[in-house]
Amino acid sequence: MDKLNCFNYCSLVILVVLTAVILSRRLLRGRRNRYFWNLLVVVLCSVIFDILAVHLDNGGGANVLEKYVAHGGYLILHNLSVPVYVFYLACLTDNMYKLRDNIWVQLILIAPFAFVLELILTTPFSHMIFYIDENSRYVRGPWFGVLYVAAAFYIGLGVIYALRCRKLFTRGQFLSMLAVFPLMVAALCVQTSNPRMRIEMFAHTVGILFILLMVQKPEERTDSATGFGKPSAYATDVEQAVYNKRPIRILLINILNYRLLLDVLGYMSTKELMNLVAERIAHVCRTELPKADPYYLDRGRFCLIVGRENFQRLDDAAQALCRMLAQDIYMQDMDISLQANLCILRCPEDLGDLKSIFAFSNEFEEFQRSGEVFYAEQILNDGRYLIRDIENIIENAMTNEGMSVYYQPIYSVEEKRFASAEALLRLNDEEYGHISPELFIPVAEKNGVIHQIGAFVLEEVCRFIASEEFQKLGMDYIEVNLSVAQCMRNNLANEILELLEKYHVRPEQINLEITETAVADSQNIMAENIRVLAEAGIPFSLDDFGTGYSNIRRMATLPLNIVKLDKTFTDLEENPRLEIVVRNTVRMIKEMQMKIVVEGIETEQVAKQFSDMKCEYIQGFYYSRPLSREEFVRFIRQAQ
Known about the structure:
Elements: H1 6-24, H2 31-59, H3 64-92, H4 96-101, H5 103-126, E1 130-132, E2 138-140, H6 145-164, H7 171-193, H8 200-216, H9 218-221, H10 231-243, E3 248-255, H11 258-265, H12 267-287, E4 293-296, E5 301-306, H13 311-326, E6 329-331, E7 334-336, E8 340-347, H14 354-363, E9 372-375, H15 376-380, H16 390-399, E10 403-412, E11 417-429, E12 433-435, H17 437-447, H18 450-466, H19 468-473, E13 477-482, H20 484-487, H21 492-503, E14 510-515, H22 516-520, H23 524-535, E15 540-545, H24 552-557, E16 562-565, H25 576-591, E17 595-598, H26 604-612, E18 617-618, H27 629-639
Parallel strand pairs: 8-9, 11-13, 13-14, 14-15, 15-16, 16-17, 17-18
Antiparallel strand pairs: 1-2, 3-5, 3-8, 4-5, 6-7, 10-11, 10-18, 11-12
C-alpha cells in the first residue's frame, strides 16, 4: 500500500516560503536567528529526504542504494531536529556559554545522537535500524526503537529545561515552546498506528511556525531595514545575560552627526544612509566577530553584544570598524562624512546591573570622542557612572541629613563689600563622599525629587536669613537657584510666599535665579510664577547667560533684575576678540536697566577688567570658594 506524501508536500511549501522570507528580510543576524535558521534547515532537509524516501518506496524498483541514502538521511535529520531544538532553547535563555564550559554536559547531550548516528550509518551492513529486503522494501530493524528512546531523552530534557527557565519567557512564548513537544509525540503516535500517513514532519513544521510567530517574533525583534535587532531585542538579551551572569562585551556605536544628517538629507535618505552603516557593521561581524549579535537602537545608535568566544578579537574588530566608519559614504552625488563614537563596555566588570547598563547605553553619546575607540572604564572612572544607584543616594541624603546648603560670597564693586551670596546645594554620601550637583540634579529632575530638594534649599536659606547672625552681617540678599522643573509647578509662587511669611523674610532678601535654558523654554506656567513672585517684590536673576542659544526677546519681556555672565566670558587673556563680545554684551544688558554678576573670576587681573567695565558684582574663587554656613559667617565677619 502506497504511503501518502501530501502532508510532506504541505510542509515543503510552508518551509520554502519561510526560508524565502527569512533570506529576503535578512533575518539571519544574531545568535537567536542563527539557531532558528539551523532548526529550520534541519527540518526542511528532513522533509526533502522523507519525500524522496516515500517516492522511492511507492515507485518500487531495485534502487537499493538510493533507498538507503533517502531513509538514512531522513532518520539522521529527523532525529537531529529534536536536539537542535533543545540547543535553540538554550540559546533563547542565553545559556549556551554554560554548555561550552562544561565538557561533561556536552558529552551527555551529544552521546544519544552520536550513538543513533553511528547505528544509522552502519545500518546498511548491520541492519540494526532498518534494511531493504530482497523485494526492495523498507523494513525496520530490531533496534529501531532506540531512535524513539533518544528522541524521548531530548524531549524530556527540553521540557525540564523550559520549565526551569520559564521566568525568562512570556506566557505565550512558554506555552508555544512546550506545545512543540506534545505535537511531535501526537504525530508520532498517529504515524505509528497508520504508517501510510507521513505526518511527523508536518507536526515539526507546525512547531516551526509556532516558534516563529510566538517566540522569534521577527516583526517585534528585528529591524526590517537593517536586519539588526530592535531596542526591545537588545533590552531582552541584555536582561537575560545579566540574569544568567553571562560575561559579555557591548560595543556601542553612535553616529554623532545623525541629527545634522537628518536635517540635511531628510528622513528617507538618512534611513538609507543608516542601512549603509549597518552593512559596514555587518561586514565586520562576518569577518571579525562572527558570533556577535548586532542591534540598531535608532537615532544613529548601533551596538554589538559579543560573547566570550570573541573577547580577544573585539579590540581589533572595533579599531577596524572605526577605520571603516571614518571612510566617506558616496550618496546622492556627494561624499558624506560620519562622526562616530565607539565604546567598549564590559559586563559585569564595568557595569553589572540592568539599570546602569541601559543608562550607559542611552547616554554615552554625550561623550564627544569622534574617530576613536574608547572604553567604558575611562568614563566610569570619572565618577559619573561609578555611582551606581544615584536615586537611592539622593533618597538617603534627604532622610539622613546628607544634604547641606553652602554659600559663595558675591562682591559688590560699587560698595566694595560682600553684599550678597549664592546658595549652593551639596550632597555628601558615606560611601562616595562629595557628589557633584551635575550628577544628581539631572536625576532628581527626572524622578521628581527636585521639588523636595528645592523646598529644602529655600527653607534653609529662609531660616538663615531669619537668624540673628545673618542680620548682623548686614548683607542685602541671598540668591537661590530654581530648576526648570520647579518653575513649571503650578503652586510654586504660593509655596515660596508662604515660606517667606513663615520665617518673616522680606521679599527683597531673596533673589531667585532662573537659567538661560528656562528662559528659552519658558511656558505659560513658568511665566505666571515669575510674574506673581516679581509683583510680590522678589527680584530675579538670569543665571549662566551665554551658555546656550540666548532668547533675547524672551529675556527682555521677563521681570529680570540681574544677569549673571557665565565663566566662559572670563577667558579674556587667552582670547582678545572675546573682549569685544563681552564689552558689547555688558553695554546691552546695562541699557536694558539690569545689573551684572560675573561668575568664575579666579584672578585679580580678570576681576579688574570687569570692574573697569562697570560690572556691579563679581563672584568666584578669587574671593572665596563656596562655604558652609558657619564658615561663611566667619568669612564675612573677617572681611568687614
